[in-house]
From TrEMBL:
Highest taxon, organism lineage: Eukaryota
PROSITE patterns found in the cross-reference section: POLYGALACTURONASE (PS00502)
Top-level taxonomy: Eukaryota, Viridiplantae, Streptophyta, Embryophyta, Tracheophyta
Catalytic residues (UniProt): 246
Name the record gives this protein: Putative polygalacturonase
Family according to the record: Belongs to the glycosyl hydrolase 28 family.
Compartments, record wording: Secreted, Cell wall
Amino acid sequence: MQGGVISCILILSFVSPCLCFTRLNFGLAIKESSYNVMNYGAKGDGKSDDANAFLSAWKNACGVEGVSTLIIPKGKVFMLKDLELKGPCKATSIHIQLLGNIVAPNMDQWGKDKIRLIRISNVKSLKIDGEGKIEGNGSSWWQKCRNCKRPRLLEFYACNDLSVSYVNLANSPGAHISINSGDRSRFVHMNINAPSNSPNTDGFIISGSRNVVFEDSTIATGDDCIAIKAGSSYINATRLACGPGHGISVGSLGENKRRDTVEEVHVKNCTFSGTTNGARIKTWEGGSGYVRKVTFEDIKLIKTGYPIVIDQHYGTKNPNKNAGSLQISEVTFKGFEGTSADGRAISLSCSSNGCFNIILDQINIVSSNPKMKAQASCNNAHGRVGKVIPNVPCMLK
Ligand SMILES: *[C@@H]1O[C@H](CO)[C@@H](O)[C@H](O)[C@H]1NC(C)=O
Ligand SMILES: *[C@@H]1O[C@H](CO)[C@@H](O)[C@H](O)[C@H]1NC(C)=O
Ligand SMILES: *[C@@H]1O[C@H](CO)[C@@H](O)[C@H](O)[C@H]1NC(C)=O
């Protein structure tokens, strides 16, 4: 349908084509227009490929001046393959209302490009909300393609001022959401769900991005709830329930001798429930760069595998004690309470360069296995130990 249907949320609603204006204080006017994918030929039957309809609706929403809304209506299921929503847009801000559900095809029905279901790139001031669900149908991949590269569900590339809320994702073949090269993103009231044995189904992967906020969300997957990778800074995660999964990780970094940096990561008031790790920093031997100014605070543990971990020998079967790695400093673990799965409570395995200014305080970790007492181990870790159970006699000054 050429041009689509422009509907206005305002009192001034005339027959199409209509121009509706919201008055701003300065007498400027902003046009508001909305675009429903159903008006662009989407079937919403869960079987037909609706990607072209989404693309046409997007082109209109993106190409119009002012504020525009893309509507994915409730009560429908849209099957998509390789959808790319590209900016830059003429619209000053775009709102995607994800009210209905989106489903990925089964493995053998994906198109050629099996990298992601939806990629959104170079779009500024994008807001996505609406309680819809993106279902990845990953089980066919996990069984037949355990060791191959599997697609992600949702990728954001170079999207500044992004806000995503009340969106549900499940069963991605690979990671659920990736955030790359963006500034100022917020993810709140998100719900991500995949089985604990699904391979590499991270909740979020962040790289090359700054000012990313996660709040009030539930993440249950087969890999990291959040993986904070190279080039990330000012990342806050608050009030998240993580588990099952591999915890919240900085890294891995420095693979193949790369120079990587991460700084200003603040994880607060989160729960790790049945995760294989809790608060973790992992770097490969031989890399350079740094990880600094990281805090994990007010963390509740429920049978967490390794509640507190620094591992600078990540990915090697035979750790080399003399190998250097990234410089880790100014890392605080404070206010941890609860149970570890077994005796491994605190493990600080730093490279030969040492980690510095590592602070442990107000920690009380008890093993949930009565046969294995909670313990701490360290290697080349320098810092300060406050009130901490179990004892950490291995910390160096
Ligand atoms: C996706 O999985 C759901 C159940 O998880 C199933 O009902 C549906 O048929 C699958 N869809 C496709 C397109 O394979
Ligand atoms: C992130 O957390 C830090 C430390 O708690 C805080 O100073 C900062 O204001 C937070 N930033 C955002 C955007 O919430
Ligand atoms: C943590 O968040 C919960 C809600 O998720 C709240 O009830 C609790 O008071 C918070 N705890 C701290 C220490 O901030």
